[in-house]
Design brief:
CATH architecture of the largest domain in chain A: 3-Layer(aba) Sandwich
Number of strands of chain A: 11
GO molecular function (chain C): phosphate transmembrane transporter activity
Shape of chain A: globular
Family (chain C): Belongs to the binding-protein-dependent transport system permease family. CysTW subfamily.
Oligomer: heterotrimer
Protein name (chain C): Phosphate transport system permease protein PstA
Largest sheet of chain C: 8 strands, antiparallel
Keywords (chain C): Cell membrane, Coiled coil, Membrane, Transmembrane, Transmembrane helix, Transport
Largest interface: B-C, 94 and 94 residues
Strand content of chain C: 5-15%
Radius of gyration of chain A: 23 Å
Largest sheet of chain A: 9 strands, mixed
Number of helices of chain C: 20
CATH topology of the largest domain in chain A: D-Maltodextrin-Binding Protein, domain 2
Chains: A alpha/beta (349), B mainly alpha (457), C alpha+beta (579)
Helix content of chain C: 55-70%
CATH architecture of the largest domain in chain C: Orthogonal Bundle
Order of helices and strands of chain A: HEHEHEHEHEEHEHHHEHEHEHEHHHH
Organism (chain C): Phyllobacterium trifolii
Number of domains of chain A: 2
Strand content of chain A: 15-25%
Amino acid sequence: MKKLLSTVAVAAIAVAASLGAASARDQIRIVGSSTVYPFTTAVAENFGKTSGMKTPVVESTGTGGGMKLFCEGVGEKFPDATNASRRIKKGEFADCNKNGVKDIVEVLIGFDGLSFAQSKTGMPMKLSRKNFFLALAKEVPDADGKLVPNPYKNWSEVDPSLPNEKIEVLGPPPTSGTRDSMHELFMEPGAAEIPAMKALKEKDAKAFEAAWKSVREDGAYVEAGENDNVIVQKLEANPKAFGVFGYSFLEENISKLAGVPIDGVAPSFETIADGSYKPSREMFVYVKKAHVGVVPGLDKFVAEYVSDGATGEDGYLAEKGLVPLPAERHAEVSKAMATLEPMKGDELK
Amino acid sequence: MTTAYFLILALLTVSWFLVGRQRASSIAGADPASLHSLPSYHGLFLAALICLPMILIFIVGAPLAERYIEARAFSGLDPATISDELGRSAVLRDIQSVLAGNYAGTATPELTTAASAYSSAASITSWLLLIAGIAAALVAAMFGFRLIGPEFRARNSVERLVKYILLACSAIAVLTTVGIVFSVVFETIQFFSKVNPIDFLFGLQWSPQTAIRADQVGSSGAFGIVPLVTGTLLITVIAIAVAGPLGLFAAIYMAEYASPRTRSIVKPILEILAGIPTVVLGFFAALTVAPFIRGSGESIGLSVSSESALAAGLVMGMMIIPFVSSLSDDVINAVPQSLRDGSYAMGATKSETIKKVILPAALPGIVSAFMLAISRAVGETMIVVMAAGLAANLTFNPLEAVTTFTVQIKTILVGDQEFDSAKTLSAFALGFVLFFFTLVLNFIALQIVKRYREQYD
Amino acid sequence: MTDIASTNDIPVTDTPRDALVKKRYRAERRFKFYGIAAIVLTALFLSVVLLDVLFKGIPAFSEYRLDLKVVADQALLDPQKTGDRTTLLAGNYDKIIRDALAAQFPDVTTRADRRALNGLLSSGAADDFRRMVSNNPSLVGQELTVPVLLSDDADQFLKGYQTNEIVLKGTGTLTQTLNGDAYALRSSGDDFGKAFQEIQAFLFQRLDRLHTEIARLEKTLQGMEGDAAESLRGQVDTYKAEAETLNARISDANTAIELDDKLPSLLVNVNGGTIKATQISPAGVDGTKLITPKSAEPASPGSWSILTLVTPESNRRVQDQAATWLEQLKASGTIERGFATRFFTSGDSREPELAGIRGALIGTLWTLAVTLILCLPLGVGAAIYLEEFAPKNRLTEVIEININNLAAVPSIVFGLLGLAMFLNFFDLPRSAPLVGGLVLALLVMPTIIIASRAALRSVPPSIKEAALGVGASHQQAIFHHVLPLAMPGIMTGTIIGMAHALGETAPLLMIGMVAFIVDIPGGITDASTVLPVQIYLWSDLPEVAFQAKTAAAILVLLVFLFVMNAAAIMLRRRFERRW
């Protein structure tokens, strides 16, 4: 008898589960960049508190990983929105379209500086983007301008004014949007400053691109995973290491970490907002228009995101380290988002 | 509907059990021994006859009913809104919330119509299902009821059924293994179609973060597991170096010297240690032990990485002490008293007896205890995830950061479910190696224990 | 451990003949000592782990709140006077609280200052207020005292984790001279001398570091040529100049030292105001006001004090201005430390002060419920079959070996199984307790099977034989006689297995239970997380306050585990039978 009853219970559970899974999702699901994650979670939390709807579930998967998931298709199995610390690429947009994800709404939420940081207990350093390239590229030009595998072990070998310490940089893996930004904001401009590389660029643009898009793999650059917080913790523990991550993480940890001035400008709220700190980038959230009205509250969530209270100049995201858009630009974005205008995709590269 | 159905099922089952039992007793009358089976077996027989068809009908009928209900609900709707899976599931959710009365906003007339169609269809089908279920059950029960009699071997039927259920239970364990093997083997084969197994097994470089887009240059995608093997080995060696002596001495003391009172104090300590979740130990290793090792290392002029293999290894060693000690304790206890008595009779001291007689006799068992501890250490995840690094350094310096199989599996798979790239698949290949390795280790260890037991039993 | 000694203390006479015996006894004692040492070390480690977690976790169970007098303004909360709950939920409570706070500090006029002041409050500061009013609409329009939660930084500051504070009571009379915005404070006693010396010591340290660096660079410079040497020389010169200025600042014991944000902060509390020192000399300080003193009268000895915040301002998240505000609020008695019930009643949050474990706890309950319902009947069934009914053949042997091996398969491999089978193949929902429970059930089933078999085996065969002897069938003997006697053992094994499942993290990471989930899960298919995963997630966060939360969550987890293990031990003690 006991046996029988327990069998019945098991069957009931299995059946109930299969029925439960059949009804549609009423909770927004968001994936994507770890850099945008703190902002989106803050908005999600606020949205849940004030709208009376379910709080969206946010998972941190990296910009690239998030795009992959986001573009896999339309339907409740797929996420409704993805965070991105860079703009969607043309290839990704095409992927999306191929899988039936047609109307993608692009929400520009603000700026983030890409910072190169170290522990406060370490010896402060100053760095140029050229030296950044020389320290981390897989291949660097030698005295004759020929590309050779990166021979530098210590910072002082790259430039004697730098400390005589082992090069140890913790940074994001290729799935991360921050990694793309690192290449585009640090490596490419840095490479372009080296005469030999400049010559290469004119001669063979492909080879030049390959040079600034490759990072050395001999242990000097450590891929620390998607979670920027891990890098923060590691830096704190090791004053001789450096880390590459979004400014918001630096801001959050300003008592422990210091931003390394790049080309003479230290990253700060002001220098990023006025553009004098060069390595800064735009941050996005991409939303599937097809899911609006299907997953309840998605439009309201976007509205909350672009509201003055969130991404405005004094919004709560500014406190989390997001550098807000200039007032007019923000007004423009909020207006466009009222109608959830999908992007066309021809402006992408 | 589901609840009602299973409630009725339970009700019918219980009542027919009573009916069957009653019937059997009344047939037997004053002479219970005239029945082949006890009355309650007749009851159980009927109950099983009720249960099985009803469950069967539900498993077949419920999905059909669902489909019918959906079709009815959709019939009145604009085909455009339900053209794809997404729209359909959204409409269904709306209908359900309308019916539950918590629809946000006001429902459109179409939605209300669809909702009423849905609910009427739902009630019709649930009644149908219920009636069909009950009818089938009753037919089966009537059939069974007629069988009840002094000659009917109800017990044998019920016992046969129970035996099959029990067999199915133990088959689950085998199915789990099959499931594991299947889930890793397929992906692993796929992985090896992209990466040469020789490179995988003997490559000296691990750098799985390949580019995920055509226009991106990731790392070159080296999938050589040698650095992972050495990393795992290094941490395991440190762990065993800690847990081996400590666990073994603790076991010897517990088995040979300790008074029953001491045992009753020390045993729970070891049990508590064994019960501490590894995520807690990981937190401890990362936040307390690693900075401590780093600090003390630097103060004597050593360069210690912030996530040294030493920190993870030490804490892991502490984790496996209870394994080593309790397994060794068992094998030492299993050494026959006659061996000890013989040694004492020769005038040996206790420690001499232990060293010269008991340990050699228990050696196979102790070796297998160590092997089980090793397999535990190799497969441990959270401590290394939190306290060891991601840097795949090929080194044997315990002060440097190393990475392990489990760390890499976790790093590659969390938040990433793209099942066509070598990167994701490599995690399954790692899982396969891990599974295979621990399996072999355990198998050998268990065989040793078995043979050792036979020797003294 | 007092009764271990004295089993081998046989008196040994001290003759040369007995030297060997003595040596042997020494070896004996040494050997025994190793055993004790091993056990003591293990116990020591265990207590260090537990104490460490306890020490780190205790602060998270309390929180600082500000009791603020506010008026529940009709115009801001419910302008239409609907009294409707949804309207009341959406009211602008933050503004009321922020205005009430600003009213306490008339000095705060600029936007930047207001932002800094609002930064003292948690972003969920209005939650309690909102709950009070929406639950009781009659409060609208009334004057109330509401508890307002402080931000994690303010909380950490008040708990003393941001900086050490040193308070020195003034011994002389303090005079203030106001020159434009700058205050000059002079004491008639030697109050500033000690502070001055400490600052000097601080600067000497910094100078030492610079000198070491210069020496190092100059050493590398030797024998270097060209551009590289040039730029290095430039670096050395910069450092030298820096050392020069630093030297000048501290050369004279009487010259005033400029204070910057890399030195400890000196705050002088006088006449209800606070002056921050920008320059210090043994005689007194010059500084700017953080809060305007109520009067410019000289302050008598004992009525004023110097507050030193030892951690330099640039290394602190709470700046001097905010610290001053907090000190004043604390002095006025409106800040209170209370038990953080929120920790048990709310879900996860990105704000440490708002984050709670309720979501994870409920998720754990759902997951464990699924696990228990699946693995108990299956495990016991399998155990009975293998122990009693299985024919001795190859198949049975395979199943047995299989189960033994399964018990030692790394848990992360079960995560792979869950990912590949349940998520990818069966399409079950991600992050759901259903899948988590399934995976954990498979994970702990071998444990339960092995424990149940041991329990069944420990029932003496005579019981079964007696039952068979009086005519019971095999199954009757098992189900009616052996199983009830084995039940305590089976239950003990099950509880231990469930405790194991409760602490398991790795396989759940694989199946997406690592998302940011705020809502409390309402069923086995809702997205949720479990306690150990929550611990892992929090341990990764950068905010310092989360470290305490992590440790506190660990404490809760450990309490559950201890309760379960204690239950298992009780059960064993109570029902254990020696045959």
